[in-house]
Specification:
Helix content: over 70%
Structural class: mainly alpha
Radius of gyration: 24 Å
Order of helices and strands: HHHHHHHHHHHHHHHHHHHHH
Number of domains: 2
Largest sheet: none
Shape: globular
Length: about 525
Amino acid sequence: MEVLETGKSYAKGVTYIFAGRVISLLLNIFGSIIIARMLARIYGSSEPLGWLFVLLLIPQFTVLLGDLGMGYGLSNKCAKLFKEKNFQEISSYVWSYIIFNLILWIVYSAFTYFLGQFLVVYLYSKPEIIPFIHFLAIYLILNFFFSSLQSVAIILDKTWVFSLMTILYSLVQSILAPLALYFGFQFLGLVFVYFILMPLIPSMSGFIILFKYLRYFRIDFNKVKEMLKFGFPIAASAYVTIPSVRIYEIFISRYASSAELGNYSVAQRFNPIIEVFLYPIGSLMFINYSKLNKTEDLNIALNFTIRIISFFVAPISFFTIFFSKELIIAFFGPYYSDGWLYLSLIGAYWLSYCTGGVVLANLVMSQGYTKKTFKYSIIYAISGTISNAVLIPLFSIYGALISALIAGLPSYIPYLRFIRRKLNIEIKFNEIIKIIILALISVLPSYVIWIMLSNIIISIAQFYILLFSCILISFAIYILITKKLKILKDSEINFLENSLKEIPYAGNLISFVLTIYKKL
């Protein structure tokens, strides 16, 4: 009975959180397109998006160690207390967390306020954003409350509040930011919305939940120590990637112009296309692998997961590579068309998911080899640090994208050796290569059609009709040839369809698509 109750609570929570994620994603896409087009129309270039890109990087530098892992400790302690309905102890832990970390975030904020100008000029080399840097000091405090209150909502099993805050955050961006630009507040208005209103407005619902259910307590340093003792070792494992990430952020700002960063920012906004497919698969990966221990089962699960990811990712990647310029113009307008090569390289990076690197990490970790995972994470971090430090100064943003493509190789190869020697498992690369070739073949006819007909386009409507037709042709060819060659067996489709129904909305959407595919 206890496990059933836990399962019901988990399913309800996942439903609310995932619904919030989907709605938030749609709002973000809509808002990003409107904001990018309005900024380009006002300023006549992609530079303002580059300024915003750098402004969003700076808090990641100044909040160097985050909450020191206390969030993990808070969740761990309060989960058990919530089960016992011990709200007094929960209140003590929550308020100890909030007060201690508020002090920590005030330090981060002061650091940003007093050294922000120095960072902008000497590290990021973007003096044009100096007038807006002090907004970040306020933003850090407001965003601390936003993230902390979302954690409180999860602890109290009020996942609908978590989702509401997520949706409100995106709603403020997609509505108030365009309104600020429309009424003539220009980039200053956009900064005010992003760094003041976006974290402030959604936090109101979180404060209501906090004060309604949890009585105020003074800080208890014993509880602070308990949370740090549990959470800091977990957080420390993530700190190994800090040098690589910081070098990427600083170098990409120093060696790229604001216009280039604006174009790059637009190219990155296509990432959710892939995330829609990867999230429902990835969210169940570790849990389901943890249930397996037989070599045969692990081998089947590993190769099936990689094949499914490749099946969805490969055609989208190739279409993005070949039609990058057209996609940017279609969604964001001609001002950002110079970023087409960035998007092509991002599409090439998506193809790396077909090699199964993320799947390997989850499999190895699920079998209890966490030390190996940590070791390979260090290798990845070192590789990323070196490649970023060498390639970004030489090739600017292109160097960063090339680094992303190659940085995983030094850790990927040891993963392959480990699963072959220790787990007696191998990836069937011939199946992956077959899917990649079929995806490429399906896109080439559309690309030829585009080259032949694009020169005679005389209206915007014709441009969109031709692009949409190319999308339909490519994916129709891909679906037909993969079905004809039985890349996915009916039994595998049934298994995938039933498994993904556990993930609300996106899982059901993919299951619906697979049902149609099966009937072809």
